[in-house]
Design goal:
Layout (H helix, E strand, L loop, with lengths): L1 E4 L2 E8 L3 E6 L20 E6 L16 H15 L4 E6 L1 H12 L4 E7 L7 H8 L8 H10 L4 H14 L10 H4 L5 E7 L8 H9 L3 E6 L12 H12 L6
Parallel strand pairs: 3-4, 3-5, 5-6, 6-7, 7-8
Antiparallel strand pairs: 1-2, 2-4
C-alpha cells in the first residue's frame, strides 16, 4: 500500500490481527528485509512494515533525509492507520528512528527493541560514512540493493549520498543521557560484540541512560546480529520480551 505522507509516497504493509507491532528496517534496507528474520509473521500481532522515505518502494523527491523526519513519517502513517500506541523493533537506522519516536512522543511507544542503534555516531563510524560508496560492497549486496530499491540507480546513489552526509551531521543523531531519560518504553537494547560500526560500549551508555532498559550483548555478533544463525535466538527473545512472558 502507498500513503502520501510529508511530500513522499511511503510504501507499507499491514498484516495480521492483534496488538500493533511496528518493524523498522535499517539504512539502505527495506521492509522486506524482515522476512530474513521472521520467516512467518509473529502471531498475535498486527504487523506494520513501512519502507522509509527514499528506501525500497518509497519515494523521497527532496533527496533530504534525517532519522527525525523518518520518525515523523512513521507517526503520520500510524495516525492514518488509527494506531495510537505501538510495540516496535528497529534495526540500525530503524533503531535510531525508534529512539526519535520514543523521545518525541514517549507515550506512543509501549515497548521497543533497538538493535545496533547508537545514541551518536562515533569517530570510527563517521570515517566509514564519509567515504561510503557502492564499490565498498560485495557484488551480491549490490544485486540485492537493485532488487530492494525499485526506483533505479538514482535512488541508490541518493542513499549513498545521504550516508556520506551523516559523517558531517552532529544534530540528528545526538541522544544525550537527559534526552534518553525521557523514554518511558520498556526497551531491549541488542548489540553484537563484534559490531564494525559501533563499539559495544555504546550499548552500555544506552542501557545506563534509558530508565526501563534491558541489555543483550550477542556473543560473536556483528552489526545487526539478528540474521542467519542469530535469527532463531533473536525471534525467541524478542517475542518473549514483547509479550512480557519473560517477566512472569
Amino acid at each position: 500500500m502507498i500513503a502520501e505522507i510529508n511530500g513522499c509516497q511511503i510504501y507499507y504493509d499491514v498484516r495480521g490481527d492483534g496488538e500493533p507491532l511496528l518493524l523498522l528496517h535499517g539504512g539502505m534496507g527495506a521492509g522486506g528485509d524482515w522476512t530474513h528474520v521472521f520467516p512467518t509473521d509473529p502471531s498475535g500481532f498486527r504487523i506494520v512494515v513501512p519502507d522509509a522515505r527514499g528506501h525500497g518502494r518509497s519515494t523521497n523527491p527532496s533527496g533530504a533525509f534525517t532519522f527525525r523526519q523518518a520518525a515523523l513519517d512513521v507517526f503520520a502513517l500510524l495516525d492514518r492507520l488509527g494506531i495510537e500506541k505501538v510495540k516496535a523493533i528497529g534495526l540500525s537506522g530503524g533503531g535510531i528512528t525508534l529512539l526519535h519516536m520514543a523521545t518525541i512522543q514517549p507515550a506512543r511507544v509501549e515497548s521497543m527493541i533497538v538493535v545496533s542503534a547508537p545514541p551518536y555516531f562515533p569517530a570510527g563510524a563517521r570515517s566509514i560514512q564519509a567515504k561510503f560508496s557502492e564499490e565498498m560492497l560485495p557484488e551480491a549486496e549490490r544485486r540485492a540493493m537493485r532488487q530492494r530499491h525499485v526506483h533505479g540507480d538514482d535512488q541508490i546513489q541518493m542513499l549513498f549520498t545521504q550516508v556520506r552526509g551523516f559523517a558531517e551531521d552532529y544534530h540528528d543523531v545526538n541522544f544525550t543521557p537527559p534526552l534518553l531519560s525521557t523514554i518511558t518504553a520498556d526497551t531491549l537494547i541488542v548489540f553484537g560484540d563484534r559490531d564494525f560500526l559501533y563499539p559495544v560500549s555504546i550499548a552500555f551508555e544506552l542501557h545506563a541512560a534509558i530508565p526501563r532498559a534491558f541489555l543483550w550483548v550477542v556473543p560473536n555478533g556483528g552489526h545487526g546480529p539478528i540474521f542467519g544463525a542469530h535469527a532463531p535466538a533473536f525471534v525467541a527473545t524478542a517475542m518473549a520480551f514483547l509479550t512480557d512472558t519473560w517477566k512472569r
